Amino acid sequence: MNRRRLLNPLNFAALLTIAALVPSMRLYDADHRALAWALLAAFSFGFLSLSVWPPRLRWAEHLVIGLLPVIALVLIGLDSRPGAVQVLLVIWAAVAFADWPTRHAIVAVVAVDIVYYLLLRHMGDFRAPLQIVLSFAGFQAFAALCMHYARSAEHTRDALSRVNADLLATRALLADSARDAERVRVARELHDVAGHKLTAMRLNLRALADEPAFADNPQLRIAEQLSGELLGDIRNVVQALRDSGGLDLATALRALAAPMPRPRLRLTIADDVRVSDPAIAEAVLRLVQEALTNAAKHADADMLDVTLHRNGDLLHVTIEDDGRMREGWREGNGIAGMRERLAALQGRVRLVRNPSGAMRINAELPA
């Protein structure tokens, strides 16, 4: 995930822009040149670090975003001559609108531009400082709009991916449920039609065998024996059709997790687990779906372990990730909905923190 963010095309565009500033570093006075290089390197490092901060260190990411304009303004203040380093404020504006709420980003950009204007007036070597600030504010607005639409497109793509995975998983359960219903129907037809007629035929053959004229007929005894064996075979087929393996939860759960690059799903289902009730299967599906979402958004987890096993009349579902719960974490609407869904099925769910600091979900449902 971090590597994918680091290789984002927008990062390449920003780094190319920063690289274009390298020739202008020689324009700084010799006394300030080393500091200018250090500030440009610090800005570049801080910008790249925004792609690797895990969700549990979100505060550190916000701190870096707040420091970037300070670095850019100090770099601008080192040289009173007009230069190109002001473009760093455009890059920072794009970062602010990408990571902060729009209202907060607008306030931050306006505040930084005011400081930039006051800095230009203090330096005194810039003509029409307000015009310069407004010009770069236009570039900042353009960068902000680009980031806004890019972020909206990314959120829409992720939402569509989750919806598609949800549909695939639900379709797998519905298809499996339909196959189970068809097996039960065929079993019922075999039992009620073929089984009934074979039983009647056996009774008639036995009645014929009791007649003195047919008592010594070997073909009649063979026919009666074959009808009995056929009736037994049909009963075995009917039993096999009724004793299905239940709904294919494994396929549905893997389809649900497939579009998510992280966390990966590691699924363990005990051999004695049989779920034939679509409502129970749907509850397990939504439970794992919520766990996947929370592990990706809040725990920065790479792996999600899901284990299903039976204990008497109860189906136990244990879900555990390898991330780390944030301090002060509170249950949201997703967890509340999870509890309500299981309670409606006479089930329950319990959330605990494991020894490594990650979340563990223990759920019980009627098997």
UniProtKB/TrEMBL annotation:
This is Signal transduction histidine kinase. Keywords: Kinase, Membrane, Transferase, Transmembrane, Transmembrane helix, Two-component regulatory system. SUPFAM superfamilies: ATPase domain of HSP90 chaperone/DNA topoisomerase II/histidine kinase. InterPro entries: HATPase_C_sf, HATPase_dom, Sensor_HK_TwoCompSys, Sig_transdc_His_kin_sub3_dim/P. The chain crosses the membrane at residues 6-22, 34-53, 59-76, 104-120, 132-150. Gene3D superfamilies: 1.20.5.1930, Histidine kinase-like ATPase, C-terminal domain. It comes from Luteimonas terrae. Residues 282-366 form the Histidine kinase/HSP90-like ATPase domain. GO terms for molecular function: kinase activity. Residues 182-244 form the Signal transduction histidine kinase subgroup 3 dimerisation and phosphoacceptor domain. Pfam families: HATPase_c, HisKA_3.
